[in-house]
Amino acid sequence: MVAQKMSRRQALKLLGGAAAGASVASAFPAFASNRSSVLMRLQSYEGRVVIFSTFDPMRYAPVVEAVEAAFPGVTVDWRFLPSERFVELFSAAEIAGDQIDIMDLNGQDLRRYALAGKMLDLSDTPYLDRFRPVGLQTYTIADKLWALPRGGISGFTFLSNMKLLNDIGAPEPETYDDLLALKPELEAVGASVFTHSGQNIYLWPVWQFWAFAQTSGNQPVEKTIATLQGDMKFTDPEHVAALDILRRFTEDGLFVNDVLSLDTDGAQVQFHQGSAAFWYHHTSAMVNYRAAEAELTNMEMSLQPPVQIVEGAVRQMPGGTGNATGIFANIAPERLETAQAILDLMTSDEWVAFANTDNGDPVSCNVNVQASDDPIAIKYAETCADNQFVYLDWMWPPEITRSFQEEQQAIVAGTQTPEGAATNIQSVMDQLYMDGYTFE
Question: Which pTM was predicted?
Answer without folding.
Answer: 0.72
